[in-house]
């Protein structure tokens, strides 16, 4: 069995959906399970709906209409017959969303978030599945929430592997073409959960693991994994082969082409991960697999934008040691801060974090009770793997370096 994952960029418009049909016809689709994300920037647009629900109620309708119109345009291009049953199927999903927002009593932001943003994937898979069936690419639509079971940590749910494995093995028919949603799961009360932004790659890995798949292919708008994000770096090089360990490091440091949680389950069963171009599906792309060395072995650059550096020093010149550090980490963990770099000296401690859950101001207030605090917002974190002098120079040039750390051949720099 092979697992394919098509992300938001591959289904951002009607052409993208048509292209999936082409790819499947070219590369073959027997014994395949396809995981699909929300179309284009739909998840961001649904985040606006959630924001409006909590903060600007009068704008809810406008924000839902925006998502509706975006999908309607795609539907009209894919299904010229305006009486096609797909139109009412999609209308029903929007009605379900509106019904939820009208009836919901929970004040919990993360809970509401998951119930709302999940419609992106439910809508995209319904459209793609229908289109493929109409083209003769017969497939079965699966509701992933009946398969992937999680805890109730909304927006960043953890997998219940035992139940998930059982559900997947007993419900996925390996001999068919299966289509399902990325990013979603459900908790023990059958409320929808999500696995963290960009989590559809992880969904593909979960299915691969549970089904002992032969491979996972994620189809991207780039030729494969490059040695840097082409949006921010010129003259990038394609990495042909990447050992699992190296790919885990790259993803962990923020190479956003692969979701960081994706690789562990694959590595455990040595299932290869192919990253290929949906524009040029027959090109070789990248294989993350059981090889000894990165090929070619070149410096790899990772840029994380919009990071925050929090620098702490003790109010009374006392040392920042174990007890202080464990207190700081408790606060960071309570605030769900993702820590990307740490540096400490006798009386100071600096941490570079991602303010993903918008908890920075509360955290700072709490830290100020015990420490002198300085905050640098909107800084860039560069990580260079297999760094050499030229690559470090290239990043440092004309920038003010706030923090720098060298760990074997990995160099990290926070710059202003
Ligand atoms: P998806 O459509 O699956 O959500 P993403 O947008 O998450 O795709 O991932 C593809 C994007 O990842 C590329 O367009 C590219 O800008 C970015 N990217 C970041 N780092 C890398 C890298 N090292 N190699 C290739 N692409 C990268
Ligand atoms: N649609 C979700 C997101 O945009 C999940 C994914 O695309 O992987 O974060
Ligand atoms: Mg994505």
Automatic annotation (TrEMBL):
Q: What pathway does the annotation place this protein in?
A: Amino-acid biosynthesis; L-lysine biosynthesis via DAP pathway; (S)-tetrahydrodipicolinate from L-aspartate: step 1/4; Amino-acid biosynthesis; L-threonine biosynthesis; L-threonine from L-aspartate: step 1/5; Amino-acid biosynthesis; L-methionine biosynthesis via de novo pathway; L-homoserine from L-aspartate: step 1/3
InterPro entries membership: AceGlu_kinase-like_sf, ACT-like_dom_sf, Asp/Glu/Uridylate_kinase, Asp_kin_monofn, Asp_kinase, AsparK_Bifunc_asparK/hSer_DH
Q: State the family it belongs to.
A: Belongs to the aspartokinase family.
Q: Where is substrate bound in this sequence?
A: 121
Task: Give GO terms for biological process.
Answer: homoserine biosynthetic process; lysine biosynthetic process via diaminopimelate; threonine biosynthetic process
Q: Which GO terms describe its molecular function?
A: aspartate kinase activity; ATP binding
Superkingdom of the source species:
Bacteria
User: Which EC main class describes this enzyme?
Assistant: transferase
- Catalyses which reaction? L-aspartate + ATP = 4-phospho-L-aspartate + ADP
Q: Which UniProt keywords apply?
A: Amino-acid biosynthesis, ATP-binding, Kinase, Nucleotide-binding, Transferase
Domain Aspartate/glutamate/uridylate kinase intervals:
3-277
Q: Which GO terms describe its cellular component?
A: cytosol
Quote the record's binding site residues for ATP. 231
Which Enzyme Commission number(s) are on file for it?
Answer: 2.7.2.4
Q: Which NCBIfam families match?
A: asp_kinases (TIGR00657)
- Pfam families, per the entry: AA_kinase
What is the protein's given name? Aspartokinase
């Amino acid at each position: 069995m092979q697992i394919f994952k098509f992300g938001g960029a591959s289904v951002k418009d009607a052409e993208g959906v048509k292209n999936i049909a082409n790819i499947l016809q070219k590369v073959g689709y027997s014994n395949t399970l396809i995981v699909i994300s929300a179309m284009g920037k739909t998840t961001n647009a649904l985040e606006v709906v959630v924001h409006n629900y909590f903060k600007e109620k009068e704008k809810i309708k406008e924000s839902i209409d925006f998502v509706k119109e975006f999908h309607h345009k795609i539907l009209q291009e894919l299904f010229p017959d305006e009486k096609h049953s797909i139109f009412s199927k999609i209308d029903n999903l929007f009605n379900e969303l509106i019904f939820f927002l009208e009836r919901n009593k929970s004040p919990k932001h993360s809970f509401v978030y998951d119930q709302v943003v999940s419609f992106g994937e439910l809508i995209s898979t319904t459209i793609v599945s229908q289109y493929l069936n109409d083209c003769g690419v017969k497939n079965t639509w699966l509701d992933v929430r009946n398969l992937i079971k999680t805890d109730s940590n909304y927006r960043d749910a953890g997998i219940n592997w035992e139940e998930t494995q059982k559900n997947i093995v007993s419900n996925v028919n390996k001999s068919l073409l299966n289509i399902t949603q990325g990013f979603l799961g459900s908790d023990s009360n059958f409320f929808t959960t999500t696995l963290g932004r960009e989590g559809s790659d992880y969904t593909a890995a979960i299915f691969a693991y549970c089904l002992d798949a032969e491979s996972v292919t994620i189809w991207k708008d780039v030729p494969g994994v490059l040695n840097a994000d082409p949006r921010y770096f010129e003259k990038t090089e394609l990495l042909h082969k990447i050992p699992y360990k190296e790919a885990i490091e790259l993803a962990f440091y923020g190479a956003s082409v692969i979701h960081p949680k994706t690789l562990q389950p694959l590595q455990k069963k040595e299932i290869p991960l192919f990253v290929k171009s949906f524009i040029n599906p027959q090109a070789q792309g990248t294989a993350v697999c059981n090889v000894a060395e990165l090929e070619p072995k070149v410096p790899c650059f990772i840029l994380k934008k919009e990071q925050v550096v929090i620098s702490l020093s003790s109010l009374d010149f006392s040392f920042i040691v174990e007890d202080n550090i464990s207190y700081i980490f408790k606060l960071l963990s309570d605030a769900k801060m993702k820590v990307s770099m740490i540096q400490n000296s006798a009386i100071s401690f600096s941490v570079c974090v991602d303010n993903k859950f918008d908890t920075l101001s509360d955290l700072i207030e709490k830290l100020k009770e015990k420490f002198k605090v300085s905050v640098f917002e909107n800084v860039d974190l560069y990580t260079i793997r297999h760094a050499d002098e030229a690559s470090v120079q290239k990043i440092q040039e004309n920038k003010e370096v706030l923090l720098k750390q060298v760990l074997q051949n990995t160099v990290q720099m926070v710059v202003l």
